[in-house]
Design goal:
Chain lengths: 253, 243
């Protein structure tokens, strides 16, 4: 099966600091890839480049065959993206905000209304549909962002910390939702909650200091050590040299 | 054009969803009315036209337009919504043009609400309404020029105060460049610069419009000025979107 997401030697440097260093992987339909790593490892930067928000220093990514650098608008059409922190326009109502996202994706009239209603149904937002987003709790805001990403039923979903700030019940709902959508889509979720990977992901990629340090199934990853936590720690800081970013910079220079 | 229209709608509705629109419009109308009738000697000059009003408009826009533009991109950055906006299938220039047009339409609404002045001169005398119409077109042109500069500055910074102060400075430069103080000073010392100052002055060009003249060179000036800064805005968004 052809991969819906192809990431090819993606690199991002900020001055001398290399945030993402030669990352490559592909995600096929039916896969849920858990993108793991400590804070500052380059997860969000990778996702931003994949979503066409940041321009890579080197390498590229393709979504459904469309290059994010060369054909950004076409690539974005295939993509549902939840940015880190689920930003939304605070003064807009939930319906207004989702309507805006739908119109930006080319839906009009009754098709737009159906899409918005469906997205609100999937994320259980009907009860707050006419409230301004700024009056909502953190969990609701996150679900508004999720609804915006799901609205157009995209073949590729990239979700940066989709369950952050949700209570245990809401986390459970979102995971069920991701599992239910998984068969027809290629999904990438970033998280630092390891139990989440075991619960929803079919594959885990661990990134540390901008490099991929593991790419296997959650079960294989857990089998490497006494616990998932221990494996994660040994992979992400076990062989950490002091000031690794300087070292990378010298390599580059 | 769908992308432009979508951004335009959201932005324009955004002004009216917050107190921004009402504060802006009320302050603009109060100041425009007060200045026209007091400093402008609207009654005493005994002429049925809106010259005093048109001459104050650039000075009002000088402060009020930067207040509109300062948040255009800086706010998107602060909220993180720029990441959402620019990952929708909309080209960057469409977002830039949509935001600009919404702000421009908003200024148009504020200008349109000064209609009681038009009613007043028509009640008091027999003004040339064609001249008044071209004067309004001139004001809209000035607003467009200020908005384009302010929006481009907003795209370059995350800080709204910096965006505001720099935009006021730029608009002041455009407004004051044609005033006698500046041009006389310059023509005595550096005559070459005096020509440049007169050429970029929006007040001189507005004076033409408010006398009823729509000169091709003025229209070309405003169109190319706005076009240039929208282009600069697109570049700035592209270069600095992720900062």
């Amino acid at each position: 099966m052809s991969a819906l997401i192809e990431i090819e030697r993606l690199t991002k440097r900020f001055g001398a600091f290399t945030a993402v260093d030669d990352v490559s992987f592909t995600v096929s339909r039916g896969e849920v890839l858990g993108f793991l790593g400590p804070n500052g490892a380059g997860k969000s930067t990778t996702m931003r480049m994949l979503a066409g928000f940041m321009t890579p220093t080197a390498g590229t990514a393709r979504i459904c065959g469309d290059d994010v650098v060369e054909r950004p608008v076409a690539a974005k059409r295939h993509l549902g993206f939840l940015p880190e922190g689920a930003p939304t326009y605070p003064e807009m109502t939930v319906t207004g905000f989702l309507g805006f996202c739908g119109r930006a994706r080319g839906f009009r009239g009754s098709a737009l209304d159906d899409r918005v209603a469906n997205a609100m149904h999937l994320t259980q937002l009907e009860s707050v549909r006419l409230q301004p987003v700024e009056t909502l709790s953190k969990g609701f805001k996150r679900r508004v962002g999720l609804a915006a990403a799901l609205l157009h039923d995209p073949p590729v979903l990239v979700l940066d910390e989709p369950t952050d700030g949700l209570d245990p019940n809401q986390k459970h709902e979102v995971r069920n939702l991701i599992r239910a959508m998984a068969p027809e889509k290629a999904i990438v979720i970033s998280t630092h909650i390891l139990e989440e990977v075991a619960a929803v992901c079919t594959r885990a990629v661990i990134i540390a200091r901008g490099r991929v340090v593991a790419d296997e199934t959650p079960a294989a990853l857990a089998a490497r050590g006494p616990s998932m936590d221990a494996v994660f720690r040994s992979l992400t800081l076990g062989d950490a040299a002091p000031e690794p970013e300087r070292e990378t910079a010298r390599e580059v220079a | 054009m769908g992308g432009v229209l979508t951004v335009f709608r959201r932005e324009l509705a955004g002004y009216f969803a917050t107190p921004v629109a009402y504060v802006f419009i009320v302050i603009f109308l109060v100041l425009a009315g007060a200045l026209t009738f007091t400093l402008g000697n609207f009654f005493a000059r005994g002429q049925a036209d809106l010259q005093p009003f048109f001459s104050f408009v650039p000075w009002l826009f000088l402060f009020l337009v930067p207040a509109l533009t300062m948040r255009l991109w800086a706010e998107e950055r602060r909220l993180g919504t720029i990441e959402l906006l620019l990952t929708l299938p909309i080209a960057q220039w469409q977002a830039v043009v949509g935001k600009f047009l919404a702000a421009w339409a908003f200024c148009g609404i504020a200008l349109a609400l000064t209609f009681p002045l038009v009613v007043t001169v028509n009640a008091l005398g027999e003004p040339d309404n064609g001249v008044i119409a071209t004067g309004y077109i001139g004001c809209l042109m000035v607003a467009g020029a200020f908005l384009a500069v302010g929006a481009a500055i907003s795209a370059m910074t995350k800080n709204q105060v910096i965006a505001f102060v720099l935009a006021v400075a730029a608009c002041f430069f455009l407004t004051a460049a044609g005033s006698p103080v500046v041009t006389e000073f310059l023509s005595k010392r550096i005559p070459e610069l005096a020509e440049v100052a007169r050429a970029i002055s929006v007040t001189d060009r507005l004076a033409g419009f408010s006398r009823g003249v729509i000169a091709a060179r003025d229209v070309v000036f405003f169109a190319s000025f706005i076009g240039f800064f929208l282009f600069a805005n697109t570049i700035a968004v592209d270069q600095r979107k992720a900062d």
